[in-house]
Amino acid sequence: MSIRTRLESAAELSATERFRAAAVEICRFGRNALVHVIRVRRDRAWLADLPDYLLRDIGITRSQISSVTRLGRTDGYGLGL
Questions:
Q1: Is 36 contained in some domain?
Q2: Domain membership flag for residue 77
Q3: Is residue 81 in a domain?
Q4: DSSP string covering 19-73
Q5: What is the dihedral of CA 78, 46, 44, 63, to 10 degrees?
Q6: What is the pTM assigned to this prediction?
Q7: Which structural domain range is residue 7 located in?
Q8: Which residues, at least 6 apart from 55, have a Cβ–Cβ distance to it below 8 Å?
Q9: What is the C-alpha separation between 40 and 69, in angstroms, rounded?
Q10: Which of 20, 24, 27, 68 is packed most tightly, with the most Cβ within 10 A?
Q11: Overall domain count for the chain
């Protein structure tokens, strides 16, 4: 199904169908946001449990755990968590 076909078919939907589609998208967005929050908390707990020498091997300090899990690495390298 092409984008044009999907857009044309969306225009033909009734108000109730468009509302349902919007509600599904909102739920999907909320679910994805919740999954992200859970992943960040899990990764923070995992990194906080590591000894300092392993954090150094990864390339972060204990004080950077919060920002790294929230924003990612700022030097272009990923942690691969």
A1: yes
A2: no
A3: no
A4: HHHHHHHHHHHHHHHHHHHHHHHHHHHHHHHS-HHHHHHHT--GGGHHHHHHH--
A5: -80
A6: 0.59
A7: 3-71
A8: 47, 61, 62, 65
A9: 6
A10: 68
A11: 1
